[in-house]
Amino acid sequence: MSTIQRRWLFVHRALFVAFLGTAALNMLHVRGGFLTNHAADLVVPAWLYVAFRGLYSVHGRRTLLQRVFGRTPEVAALSLFIASTVTEISQFYWPRGLFPGRFDAWDIFAYAFGVAACYVVDKRSSQEPARAAALHGDTAA
């Protein structure tokens, strides 16, 4: 496992723990301000981005979801942002529907920020090996 994959594995696990924490607080009906209002909106799309891209795994993208939605950083980021935004907008028109809740435009900003952060780091980390090879004068890489 490369250093980059180990870092992504840490991020994947940290985001999952944060998701579980926010889910527990919400299920216990704890009023936790940011933790219960926006943290899951920030964390879940980011965690799904890392999972869809298979960034944490030495096996890469093995599942159908990973191969379809995680094939490129752009596809992963756009599909997750659009899906998250659609669920939020559905709360405006159908508050007791499939994704019950109350519409909040700040949630859409949280989705965008979480996915964008992962997208930027993914793009930069995929360029690191090429940059390192160029610094060392390795033309084979």
Identify the notable features of this structure and list them briefly:
6 helices, elongated, about 140 residues, mainly alpha
Question: Can you walk me through this structure?
Answer:
This protein has 141 residues and is mainly α. It has one domain. The chain contains six helices and no strands. α5 (73-93) runs antiparallel to α6 (105-135). The mean pLDDT is 91.
Number of separate strands: 0
The first-to-last residue Cα distance is 18 Å
- Which structural class should the secondary elements be placed in? mainly alpha
Instruction: Tell me the domain tally.
Output: 1
**Could you state the order of secondary-structure elements as H and E?**
HHHHHH
Kindly provide the radius of gyration, computed on alpha-carbon positions and rounded to a whole number of angstroms: 17 Å
Shape: elongated
- Quote the average pLDDT: 91
- What portion of the residues fall into strands of 2 or more residues? under 5%
Q: How many helices in DSSP terms? A: 6
Proportion of residues in helical segments: over 70%
Low-confidence stretches are: none
Instruction: Report the sheet with the most strands, covering strand number, pairing sense and barrel closure.
Output: none
